[in-house]
Amino acid sequence: MERRLGSLLLVGAGLHLSLSLTSLPQLLVDRNELTTPLTSFTRLKEGHYLLKSLSLNPYNSGSFHHPPLILLLYDLGARSHVVWVAAETLTAYLIARIADGRSRGGGRRLLEGEEAGVWTPLRCAALYLLHPFTLLTVQARSTNTFANLALALTFAAGLDGSIVLALFSLSIATHLSMYPFLLLPPLIVLLYRTLYPEAVSAAPSLVENPIEKVEPVPHSPTSSITAAPSFLQFSIGAVTIFASHQLTLLGLSFWLTGGWEFLGSVYGVILTIPDLTPTIGLAWYFFIEMFDHFRMFFVGVFQLQVAIYSLPFTIFYRHDPLFAILMLVGVISLCKSYPLLSDFGLWHALLATYSELGLYTSHPLFLTCLSLYGLTLLPTFHYLWLYSGSGNANFFYASTLVWAISQGGILLEFMSAYGKREVGRGLGSEGRKLLKEGSWVLVQR
Amino acid sequence: MKRQAVINRLLPLVPVIRSILVLAGIVYTALLPAHLLSRGHYVSENALQPAQVNTYWNWADVHIADTYADTVNNHWATYDNSSRAAAIQSAFMSLGIPSATQRYTFHLPTSSASNSTISGTNVYAILQAPKTDGAEALVLSASWLSRAFTETDQSASQRSINNRGVAIVLALANYLKKYSMWSKDIIFLISDGYSEGAQAWVDSYHGFGQTNLEVEPLSITTGPIWATLNIDYPYHSFSHVGLFYEGANGHLPNLDFLNSASHILKHAGGIPVILHSDASLAELRPAPFDLDVYIRAARNLAHQLVLGAGGRVEGPEAVWGRYRVDALTFFAVPAEGPHGFHSLGRAIESTFRSLNNLLERFHQSFFLYIMTSVETFITVGNYLAAPILISAGMTFTGLLLWSYTSGKGGPTTRPVGKAALAMGVSHAVGGAIFVALGQVDPLASIPVTLPGTILLTLLTVPILLSLAITSSAPSTTSPNTIAPLSTILLCFTNLLSGLLISLTATLNFGLAVVVSLALPIPLFLLSSHALTPFPSLLYHSTPIKVIRSSLLLLTNPIGLWALLAVILPRTAGAWLRTALRDWQVFGTATLPLVVTLVVPIWIQVATAALL
């Protein structure tokens, strides 16, 4: 297993590197599906030029929105594809760890007949490393790669129960793209469940679920010997750690740039969406159509719409917080202000760690087709609008809608598959047999 | 349950519904030329004010143009490329307009270090707008060669020299510079060759380097070009002006440009206007129930569909679309009279006055349209349904084939991976054929072995592929029923075809129509065993399988071409060379698209037929 994973990573890295020697990087560096104003390599170069060659503060330029850490990384020499390939390979390794961690820990309690649908960690890692989105993003050198790495590290560390590492990498991810702070609540639950399984089995609010009774989880070797803190105490501690990491990172950024301008130019831009460069998301079109008078209100609604899912998902999936994280990653990829395909690459690979749910999906072909239509229409309508001039902005917006609907459909499909599986679990093996035979029917109200 | 019941009711109807959809698509295509689907033309951009200005081009200017025409005939026509370019440049210079030449060379084929080249020298001059700083520009161009062929040597297909086109551009340079109303720079371009020169010039003007194009940088330039008017006037007089507007890969200029131009030609120049060069289609008056009108509209429509499907650069006007420049050619249809420099000059002057009024690029009117006559057109909303119906039929078939394979009891395993693998391999084969075709030198004759190799490849690939994907041992351990691989493959192929047609319809309507009329042949006529009402025994007997596969082989575009190459090697060779030359010089995407995306669909169906 380890050896096969190693060779997969080597082959994948080799493929990425050999592609970078072709003319692909030049073709892709400014594709709006692969980069956004916040992650574009071209803009990063420009910011660095402003800083080093002209000795200007790039955050005053109005066109540079990378966080100072990325700028530092670039300054230290992280410019060639090797760095990106290394990051993606590491992410793929972490995905394998997550898939592995799910089967080791209590996260995956399979029902009979589900083994056939389970993907090996190797397959999950391969899906990420050889995913076209990942391959192309590396060629475009979008800095979102590093945000993906930080996220994968967060989840892997969370499954391992290393509080500090998980919270630290979540802070990094938050620092790079802001939205990941929404993952803090499910991450805390995940950490608590991993570290204190016996406390969890004692706390009915964390276990009980309208449709399941959990057998006590076997004692985990990582759990501490000291008495378990209450969930509230644990949460307060975790939030404090996260906040202090965050403050350190911001302080470091302040020290690096010598001012607070980066706050407005990075996080202000993410929040208020002043740069309306078309992306594959929905925000740009929404706000080019908006009268200035209503803008602030709708920006608020737009951002609230993303944030609102965090707590309900955490509460509803509290017995399986990794699934809550998964669904939140999907929601963020879909609704963030500057989304790109690289987000969906990570999400698809994470979904693969729940591959047994594929047995419960009802429209896989339809959703695949819809995604393909979205993916092919995006560049086509982009071309029609901006190059040949035969189309207009509405064309491209229509294609982003198709893409959003297809990915939203996949999100809902996974939620409903999860629900079906959990109902089946509650029914016991006899009930499941009757369901399978068709004597019982699952009706969704 | 309800859904399952609906599906169960629908399943027997699948062949009927998909046939209805496809038939509806074909019938709708046939209805397109009917008067009720088209609408009368109008000019949407108010700033254009077509034919609303006084024109001052008169007989003195005609005399100057005649003098230039004499110079072209008696002197420049006998020069070689570079000395002719120098002579034209000094003609512009003596008018006081800054001028420059540009040498270019296209290397063919793109792939190998190459021996065959197409080269020439362009001349252009830029008249600075007296009123502004040259933020925008208009182009008045004439290519050295005309789209008309010389009458003396039809067989050698020698293009005649565009002598009067070149002459009127020079005469207009002399004339237009006298007026101070220009708010845009005017570029006068005499491009060498027929379309190649214009392609080289426009590429280097926009700083876009094709890898196989070696070109001198332009020494003088100005702002972005908004519109281009190309003049093609090869004979001493003309009867009609033909409008040529199709760009490479089905790109069209804005309808406002076309409509203003025809309006101006008619009212400012008094010249009858036709689409393209077929004068028999002129004088078309729309009348609701006139068969004659329908037939003429159908001929215009078919002509445009074929031009679009070919995606070829049919003239110098076609190269501009890639850079968002609206371009049009006035082709003075050769005749003994009655029109000449006088009326054409007035029309061009008036057109430039209209273009000069523009405050933005053309954007008001349609970019997606089909002309049924000079005065009527079909909008995108009306014509798009034709291929989309057929594509819907295919998508529908694909989705229902999928549900057709769901087991009646217990879960079904669908060999998705194998089917996807077969599709991937077939497209890779298409890619390989394209690479092989790319090695052919478009200026020499094609290798004798090529058609045979292609036929052999097309014959063996489905057989090998079907053997490869069935021979891998089926897992008997699984209790699940396994869906037939051929059905899954056909399902995917149908879905892919639907996607392909609907995407192409937005990019190049002509190509979409041609593909949507061609694809039902393999997908529906020759692959119905999965959905057949006939006993499947008949369809699974080996001779039937072989006959079906060979029929499939023969109906695909590359197979047809290879057969033709066996029978008529000269014609087939000329076709391939033209297609390759268009791809390598002008970037016409039809050949790569057909070979890598459409032909593999036949391979897939043939594979499914053998399974």
Kindly describe this structure:
The complex is a heterodimer of chains A (445) and B (611). Helices cover 68% and strands 0% of the residues of chain A. Chain A has 445 residues and is mostly helical. In chain A, helix 10 (184-195) runs antiparallel to helix 18 (321-335). Chain B is built from 21 helices and 16 strands. A nine-stranded mixed sheet of chain B has the order 8-2-3-7-4-9-12-10-11, sandwiched between helices. A three-stranded antiparallel sheet of chain B has the order 1-14-13. A two-stranded antiparallel ribbon of chain B has the order 5-6. At the A-B interface, helix 20 of A face helix 11 and helix 14 of B.
* Sheet having the most strands of chain A: none
Q: Please report which band the strand proportion of chain A falls in: under 5%, 5-15%, 15-25%, 25-35%, 35-45% or over 45%.
A: under 5%
- Counting helices, strands and paired strands, the structural category of chain B is alpha/beta
> What is the share of helical residues of chain A?
55-70%
- Rg of chain A, nearest Å: 22 Å
How helical, in percent, are the residues of chain B? 40-55%
Oligomer: heterodimer
**Unreliable stretches covering 5 or more consecutive residues of chain B:** none
In the sheet with the most strands of chain B, the strands line up as: 8-2-3-7-4-9-12-10-11
Q: Tell me, briefly, the overall form of chain A.
A: globular
Give the termini separation of chain A.
44 Å
- H/I helix tally of chain B: 21
Number of strands of chain B: 16
Helix-strand sequence of chain A? HHHHHHHHHHHHHHHHHHHHH
Structure annotation, total helices of chain A: 21
Structural class of chain A: mainly alpha
Mean pLDDT of chain B: 84
What global shape of chain B is seen?
A: elongated
Task: Provide the gyration radius of chain B in Å.
Answer: 28 Å
